[in-house]
Amino acid sequence: MKYAVGIDIGGTNTRVALYDEKLQLIERVQFPTNSEDPEITLERINNAINVFDKDIVGIGVSCPGPLDLINGMVLNPPNLSGGWTNYPIVKRFKEITGIPTFLENDANLAALAEAMVGQGKGLRYVQFLTISTGIGSGLIINKEIFRGAHGYANEIANMIMWKEGPAHGKLSPGAIEGIASGTAITNRAKSAGMDIEHAGEVNDLAISGNAIAQEIMDDAKEYLANTLAAIFAVVNPEIIILGGSVALKIDGFVEEVEKRAKQKVYMGLENYVRVVKSNLDEDSGLIGAACLVFNNA
């Protein structure tokens, strides 16, 4: 039996898992990501891999974009900084572990997992978006990741949807991540004086009648629906799968976004717009990373 290591490096936590060829989870560990120094995080990953002690054919690394997939580098992801900027992660993994390493955008790998074992299983054109701390996206065509001409396809976080809209980190004002991500929803609410910690609390205030919270949640749903309608017009996927904490934990969010998206496509095409919640947990990136290894090793 051959094995693959899937690694999901997030802005908060890093997860490392061992999978067999049937994509069965064998072992899994999790620890905080050092968001400033990648070498510390890689050392802990290597320690975990050494404990696995199996015939590992490759390492799949899921990391937030933007990435330079041709040269195997992390560029400047919004939730990682310091030494992570322009970091040659594939080269360093090979130097440290001696194992073939494959890098991919975290949303692309989550999308691959959805197409292989999730809501998109058996479908040819699978679009995935994660609506969480940030917003990421991936498109799978015939079980292959669509990367575009330079590897930057589906980097939609900076898609400008709102003229002179909210500013958000390194992104341009009015970017969809600055409107509909959990971080954006929370920041807008805090700026309006609300004592909240996460997007779910903003939604609770909206339900209770807070007019500003209602406006923030309405903006998130409306502009996200615009984004999905645009994706549908360009890509025409069989399914659009939404994952991430905002999509999965806020009751009715996905259903409302689907309803709005259906109203924004050509008349007669609304029945083809299918937007569903992911049925995979937070480990979808790990599963996708293992798929990447077995597809390439």
Automatic annotation (TrEMBL):
Q: Keyword annotations for this protein?
A: Transferase
Residue ranges crossing the lipid bilayer per the database entry: none
> What InterPro entries does UniProt report for this protein, alphabetically?
ATPase_NBD, ROK
Q: Which domain of life is it from?
A: Bacteria
GO MF term set: glucokinase activity
Q: Does the keyword Transferase apply?
A: yes
The record's annotation in Pfam families points to: ROK (PF00480)
What EC designation does it have?
2.7.1.2
Tell me the protein family, please. Answer: Belongs to the ROK (NagC/XylR) family.
Matching entries from PANTHER family are given as: BIFUNCTIONAL UDP-N-ACETYLGLUCOSAMINE 2-EPIMERASE_N-ACETYLMANNOSAMINE KINASE, ROK (REPRESSOR, ORF, KINASE) FAMILY
Q: What is this protein called?
A: Glucokinase
